[in-house]
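$ fold --in a.seq
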Amino acid sequence: MDDNGLIELRRDIHRWPELASGEKRTAALVADRLRAAGLEVTTGVGGHGVVGVLHGDEPGPAVAYRADLDAVPDTETFDSDFRSRVPGAAHLCGHDIHTTIAVGAAEELCRVRPARGRVVFIFQPAEENLTGARAMIDDGLLDRTKPQEIYALHCAPIPVGTFVVTPGAGLPGQDHCRISLPAVGGERIVAAVNALSTVRRPQTPEQLQQLMQDLATPDGPLSRYVYMQSFADADSVAAWWRAWPDERYPEIRAELRRLADGAAIEFPAPPFPAMVSSPELSLGAAESLRAVGEVATLRAAYPFNGEDFALFLRRVPGAMIFLGVANEAVGLHGMTHATDFGADERAIGIGVRAVVGLLSDRLAAIS
């Protein structure tokens, strides 16, 4: 495996980020690498989605692996010689790393071709606006490829060389509303709405460590939570929130109606569902991952991010695994969606080895 070549691929993608539904260049890079490795490649799936299928030597089960392609609509402040060259777009959530790891795993598995079965590599567009997974599913991806299990890695602000699994948990869904305002009172409503939050983003490594401890504790303080944000404009208050578990959303809507105090309130769509990993497959993945690094287990969903990988997991059993990319000693905190997001690039080689081992083990285990 060429770790340096993969790092250069990541930096190329990082320099030229593309926002949701505009991932044309990134998709072309991926498709070219997959074809060169020998995969059966389909492009234009659900937009700029790319699917690569690797066939083993004999027929057998199919296991899928998903990576996301798009960048965040924000401005990068982390200084490097490969920082974003595109105004208003940056890979602040690590999707460049996710894509690179999936390409590297596909190339490596081509070299050590599985004895049986198929691996379906899914490169998904438009994760940041939660439309890409639905578009690929509606395009018939899962019906055509018929995977029996599906997996993904996601960057996380934990030390490089470590992994986290979330059996029965994962990431929360989200909901949003708009409250029409009377002549005055917007700031009062914003304050009341924001007061519904029961969790705050960690600002220091110590706060993050405490958060992870709370998430790892069954029935602990984060077994139920709300993370709320709202703001007022000229004539309304807009709010969005994440909650765990999904049963919280009707409760929160009822409380928001009360806080609106007779003002018109609109909920434009049903809540987006939580991403819930299979308990059994998460713990099974942990056994494979221990050959590569340390593995921790969280029992509640990390509060501050959502994922449309949730829609794949509602159709196919599987798990998302969190990959450590932080190295505080050199100023790389790995906090996704921060404008100064920085990642230890050793995580790329670690991730490739983890994915190759996991997918190989699953193909061998499924009857």
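$ fold --in b.seq
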Amino acid sequence: MFEDTHNEHVLLTPGPTPIHPRAQKALMRGMLGHMDPEVFALNREIQADLRVMYGTEPEAFTALLAGTGSLGMEAGFANLVEKGDEVLVCANGSFGRRMAEMAARYGAKVRLVTAPLGEAINPQDVADHIDGVAMVAVVHGETSTGVLNPVPEIAELVRRSGALFTVDAVTTAGMEPFKMQDWGVDYAYTGAQKCLSAPPGLAPIAVSERAFARFDSRRSPTPLWYCDFGGLKDYWIDHTYHHTVPVNLHYAFHAALQAALEEGLENRQRRVRLMGRVITRTLEFYGFSHYVRKEADRLPTVLALRLPEGFDDAGVRQALRKREISVTGGLGPTAGVIWRLGLMGESAHPEPYRKLMAALQDLMGEPGLLARYEEVLVEEAVQKPSLLSV
């Protein structure tokens, strides 16, 4: 029988994240029709706030897709790629590989630029393979390995080539400043349940004017009707019916996004980095270490830590789950090798990780672990205590 323990559970995964209290409250608002004037007014505010979050040009098209981040990924290829187009995909983990698979399914001729697991894409490799491609696609924060790819450097290469540039911002947008216009990104997407701590089920997207012009010049209809940019524009701009949007998820997302912007994206960036240092310094003392060797390549929002020698990964995570604490192990080749600790949105605060350290102290027989955490927390937060009081 299902038992409701959501008020007690400590969710420290790479997604979903704990729902922001304001989003939780908004989720309980009474239902309105998806064509109601109040919903259209709410949607306009969401669109404006998304332009701020993504750092778009003033007239960029923004919207919420009724699906998770993977739908955001698929919609980009469905609308902006046609059969026979050359697409360069940067793949250094599971989600880069997913991009390549989706592009191929929509008829693209895929070129891969790869990097070993735990390493960022080398922009020079992109430069060596970019000639003649219609699109370049990259995952900004590769969730599967905790790697931050050098999107600004890759963007400069793409800008000079004339190709469209698609960026998966699933573990960065809303927690890291994202400069879509300045960098020259044409299409970006994330998932509501990641850095913004809204419920799963929405994929916030942003489409540049240049990308929309490419869409308008398609030789064939978009093969994915549900997320056809033209149909989406009909609903979000012209307010004509396309499909029924999940209104209550819009309420919750609006509240979570406003909370993030009120906190400030740069403050959130500083907060996640501070918490990352605290957790790493605490666990390093007990044999955990960074999986990603180069500091510049580490994704702040998904802390990938190599497990100590002889550590019982599955056993400890199972024991933690019995104590209502969820952490995530490696994916594919990194299973049993790393933990991936979520530091997005509401999980990037001291209290959730205080509970983790207390549980690990007991399970590992390390009596000083919690005290070590508190000590490091004070040291790191002394300059900016306000970052951890949001």
